[in-house]
Amino acid sequence: MFKPTDLFDLAQTEHAALFDGCDHAWDALKQLKAYLAAHLRPALHNRCEGVAFIGPDVFIGEGTVVEDGAMIKGPAIIGRNCEIRHNAYLRDHVIVGDGCVIGNACELKHAMLFNECQVPHFNYVGDSILGHRAHLGAGVILSNLKVVPGNVTVELDGRPFDTGLRKFGALIGDHAQVGCNAVLNPGSILGRGALVYPCTSWRGYLPAHNIAKNQAPQQVAVRRPRE
């Protein structure tokens, strides 16, 4: 259930070769650095609105707009017709598909986005893969490093499975959505069309078309004037 094709439509990226030989979808993260080294041909076909920093090892496709204050360090490949908005920060080893939105104050690091992903407001995406039309609400954090030593594990066949990755954020399947201010803990996996409600702290595997939500009670009190 964690094969690349279990989570992602590989026709919705020009970089399907990144998943060649991957038994599990997270194995692509181990190949990302080498893939960019082999396939990146720096060129800028974008339009800038204002002043942005774009490093020497960056490819940006036609129709993409990079707004004022954005920083794209590279190595990075960014597709066509994307929006890289004000103050976005794209660090090393990033692939962004066609028609994606990277919004204000969002940070991407060692990550891959399939076509038409939306990462629009105050998001951190580290060591993660987002599928076709995946969407992150404002303030969503994909946490990628455990607070205790050791590699990130996922539950496989009822047992912890060592992914071989010290840093591993999340795999978010095609059309999955994460609500505002939710946190996905290291090694989280969302199946196709899954939904995580706002302000939820999620860990583990959420199967396709399932919903994870908090049910904490709310308290209502009478508002009284202070003396």
Walk me through the structure.
The structure is a single chain. The protein is mostly beta strands and 227 residues long. It has one domain: 3 Solenoid (UDP N-Acetylglucosamine Acyltransferase, domain 1), CATH 2.160.10.10. Helices cover 7% and strands 33% of the residues. It is built from 2 helices and 28 strands. A 9-stranded parallel beta sheet has the order 1-4-7-10-13-16-21-24-27, with helices on one face. Strands 3-6-9-12-15-18-23-26 form an 8-stranded parallel beta sheet, with no helix packed on it. A 5-stranded parallel beta sheet has the order 2-5-8-11-14, with no helix packed on it. Strand 19 and strand 20 (159-162) form a beta hairpin. The longest helix is centred in the N-terminal third of the chain and has 13 residues, at 27-39. It is globular and about 60 Å long. The chain starts with a helix and ends in a 15-residue tail after the last strand. The model has no long low-confidence stretch (mean pLDDT 96).
Shape: globular
**Level-2 CATH architecture:** 3 Solenoid
For this structure, the CATH topology is UDP N-Acetylglucosamine Acyltransferase, domain 1
This entry's quaternary arrangement is single chain
CATH superfamily heading: Hexapeptide repeat proteins
Helical content, roughly? under 10%
Count of discrete domains: 1
Unreliable stretches covering 5 or more consecutive residues: none
- Side by side, the strands of the main sheet go 1-4-7-10-13-16-21-24-27
- The radius of gyration is 18 Å
Order of helices and strands: HHEEEEEEEEEEEEEEEEEEEEEEEEEEEE
- How many helices does DSSP assign? 2
% residues in beta strands = 25-35%
Spatial separation of the terminal alpha carbons:
61 Å
